[in-house]
Task: inverse folding
């Protein structure tokens, strides 16, 4: 029950942030962003007699109905709350904001619209739900045209940009790309927010036994031994896989270099690590401190 309530709260919060972006930045400044709002803004010169907020609401509900009919019950339940709440939030905020703009700079408006959209969509994604909108045509293209989802999204974004160029200008479309890019960056950050800042390190060395012993003793981290084979020599090798906190990496790097300066390291950022040594130990520390 607690998890369900929290998910609903996050869904509402995420849709509220998206509505802020549209009502406060995208519509007043005519930003050609991605999604339904960007399409509605691009259609404004063609349909001047239709209010942009009303058009966004119509497109959102219309796409949801199409998705519910063609994508099944799973899509319906993942998107229902967003489809109901987002238009409500958007219309209320539009009435409050009116024709006011928070900044006269279209570049700042594009940037902040992307930040708010990215934050909202990222929060919704964390609940395992969908915001609907232009996700639906992409999902339909994936299902019926067997097109990879990233390709479908890229095509739809391209069509939106072309539509914006034809109804506004190339400059307006380029400004809109600021919103698209900033939203994609913030979505990634929002989805991975709260994860451990760690590095995953693969070490290839003939002195793996010494390295393993030093890692366990000096860095207090476990490691995994992987069997590998040299691509050129075809010799069997051992690969050490270890995950460390970012602040521990310099110490690990020095340790490896001191033991075997000819070792081969592959380092990657790891955005979420759970399990013994990370989350389990933390929970134990919290319990001990309370006791």
Result:
């Amino acid at each position: 029950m607690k998890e369900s309530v929290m998910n609903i709260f996050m869904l509402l919060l995420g849709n509220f942030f998206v509505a802020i972006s549209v009502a406060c930045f995208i519509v007043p400044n005519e930003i050609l962003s991605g999604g339904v709002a960007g399409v509605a803004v691009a259609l404004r010169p063609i349909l001047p007699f239709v209010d942009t907020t009303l058009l966004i609401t119509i497109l959102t509900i219309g796409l949801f109905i199409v998705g519910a009919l063609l994508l099944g019950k799973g899509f319906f339940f993942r998107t229902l709350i967003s489809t109901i709440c987002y238009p409500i939030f958007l219309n209320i905020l539009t009435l409050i904001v009116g024709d006011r703009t928070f900044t006269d700079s279209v570049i700042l408006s594009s940037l902040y619209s992307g930040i708010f959209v990215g934050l909202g969509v990222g929060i919704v994604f964390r609940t395992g739900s969908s915001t609907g909108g232009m996700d639906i045509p992409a999902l339909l293209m994936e299902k019926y045209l067997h097109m990879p989802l990233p390709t479908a999204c890229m095509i739809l974004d391209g069509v939106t940009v072309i539509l914006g160029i034809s109804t506004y200008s190339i400059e307006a479309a380029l400004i809109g790309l600021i919103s698209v890019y900033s939203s994609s960056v913030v979505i990634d950050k929002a989805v991975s927010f709260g994860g451990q800042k760690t590095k995953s390190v693969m070490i290839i060395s003939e002195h793996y036994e010494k390295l393993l012993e030093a890692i366990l003793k000096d860095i207090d981290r476990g490691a995994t031994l992987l069997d590998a084979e040299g691509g050129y020599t075809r010799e069997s090798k051992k690969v050490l896989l270890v995950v460390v906190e970012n602040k521990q990496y310099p110490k690990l790097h020095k340790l490896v270099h001191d033991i075997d300066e000819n070792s081969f390291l592959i380092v990657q950022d790891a955005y979420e690590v759970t399990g013994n040594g990370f989350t389990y130990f933390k929970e134990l520390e919290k319990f001990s401190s309370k006791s």
